[in-house]
Design goal:
By secondary structure, the protein is an all-beta fold. 0% of the residues lie in helices and 40% in strands. The chain is built from no helices and six strands. The strands form two sheets. The protein has a four-stranded antiparallel sheet with strand order 3-4-5-6, with no helix packed on it. Strands 1-2 form a two-stranded antiparallel ribbon. The relative contact order is 0.25.
């Protein structure tokens, strides 16, 4: 209930994410001109792994500080209560 929507993606606060499904950061990164550098996690559920399917901004740029450490997911991941 407490997600932040940015560019159509729901960013979940860290305390609402079940981290047992996330790998350690994968080392993959991308750059957004206004959000900064994104880090990624693999997501594994029921033995199936989706590579780099979750992303986060550990040190976002000024305009994106409201999503610091929040996690967003690609549609290959089902988000449920």
């Amino acid at each position: 209930d407490d997600t932040v929507i940015v560019e159509g993606n729901h960013y979940f606060p860290p305390e609402s994410v079940r981290t047992e499904f996330l790998s350690s950061p994968t080392g993959h990164s991308t750059h957004c001109p206004w959000k900064g550098d994104a880090g990624y996690h693999d997501v594994t559920v029921d033995g199936e792994t989706a590579s780099n399917a979750a992303w986060f901004y550990a040190a976002p740029l000024e305009k994106a500080t409201h999503i610091k450490d929040h996690v967003a997911f690609y549609p290959v991941v089902s988000v449920t209560d």
